[in-house]
Amino acid sequence: MTARPVRAPWHWKAWWGLQYVVVRGAAFLVETIPPTFAQKAARAVGRAYYRLDGPRRRTALENLRVAFGDRYTSEARAALALASFEHAFVLLVEILLRRRLVPTLREFRARTRILGDEEAARDEVRAGRGGFLLTAHFGSWETAGTYLAYERVPFTGIARAVPNPYVQRFLMQTRREAYSVFEKTGAVDQSLKVIRKGGWVAVLGDQNAGRHGVFVPFFGVPASTYPFVATLAAMYDLTVYFGAAIRRGPDFRYDFHLRRYDAPAGLDHDARRLHLLETYHRWIEEMVALAPEQYLWMHRRWKTRPVGEVSGPHLPQYDHRGKPPRRPALVRRRIGKVS
Description:
two-stranded antiparallel sheet; seven-stranded mixed sheet; alpha/beta
């Protein structure tokens, strides 16, 4: 497929081009050195980024304060935030080195433990039933996608585009070497087509959804959440699993956690949608408790606040970079009928 030309002012193209050269150069360097050294280098870059990017560092520390309160001292929260930044850059290494890290399915299985509803999931795949795999910005979600591809699961990921179109093409090409992927635009139609053919669609569902999200508790604080998966699952009675891959130690071993979501009987559409989102966030909390340093705390998960909320010290205080906090109107996101 021929890439469409990028239309933008020349100075933006120049800046994007410079970023692209840096990204490709770093990727080439990572691909030519041993994986253990690449991981050490990634952690060093993560530590440097933690010190240089003040707004994201403060966001991570504030998120940890909101999530854990007095359970961690300020020193312990700082150590977790630093480890989370290291983890983020190790994720990039895993994307670039996925085939070198685990070249065969047999070796992958030898370095992996699967916990939870594995047999139920295998039965679904053998029966040709599709559905959603809800994951989060936790653990090694890109490695989880590679594992599904190794297991010959008909799997498709939904990727959010990065601002740089040249880097976006590179990332999409790299991902597609392991599994199918499409962008968020048109995700409703494409997801239903994949599922109706017996495929599985993986979605990162723990992002701030802004004004049109559904508020559900996350570590006890309401968080605006995209209802995309929950709405389609309730509307079409689709199967949903929660899944995460936790990295164990420095030698790229993993624990894969799978949990099938079963809605209680008798719920109407709205109640089922809300129940799925609440159950999903409780599951994320359980996973984070196993490895809190492997959650991306640098994102402003609680940025959008519900109308009428009473302020207090339990709420996050983010750097808004010159913009006021977002106070959404009481609106519901409308998802049109899909044929």
